[in-house]
Amino acid sequence: MFSFPYTDPELADWIRWACESGEVPMFIRAIAVAASIADLPHYALLRPVLLELMRERPPTAALGNSNPPLNPDERQAATTIGWIFGVVEARQHICS
Known about the structure:
65% helix
């Protein structure tokens, strides 16, 4: 079982690559960034999606290359995704 995104042996390298790569669409990059900052319950929700994205978009470049850092819009997208998951989780808790 995994504990956090960067200690997930199956996805750690891919998440790092997708966060830093300029080769993936912004949507995928935002999901990877959201996964990299997610707490365990939210990461568990994202993990099946991440596995499918990894199958569809394997890394094409070596890790550690110099890619541009995330810009403010990308960080905002990741924050928004995290906020959406928080709202959904709160709603499920209230309704249960």
